[in-house]
Fold:
Amino acid sequence: MIKCRTLDGKTKWISKDKMRLRPSAYGIIRDRESLLLVRMKSAGKYFFPGGGVELGEKVTDSLTREVKEETGIDIEVERFFIFREDFFYYEPNDTAFHGLLLFFLCRPTSWELIKDNKVEDDNAEKPRWVKVSDLKKNDFYGCGKDVFSLWLKEFQHEF
Structure:
């Protein structure tokens, strides 16, 4: 049995044969003093835009596609930042994932966000530019807490 995190942050034990491997890419997208974030519908907390890599799709192509679907903006992927691993259970589909999460530093090449009702994602909503000074570690969902803290530690001298 594998210990998985549920969308609401609880624990659920799942048999190994029910697990699916899920590589995914997420963008840490900064514009001056703000980060581009989405809200997780299930938890009401922030996360970085991005999502699953489709079979045969390059990771960076997946990232630019997912960011466009969730936020409406275009990005330039600058460099890899950090890797995280996650075991999570997605209740709506009764599916468990072994997540391989790749986080990249990105630069926006457009800035106008799509309207909330146009976000093309099951669990992400409300894309927003959020001032870094207004953010705390606990505002983030799952491993986003750790990723935000590490990013802030590395780049805090720029604020």
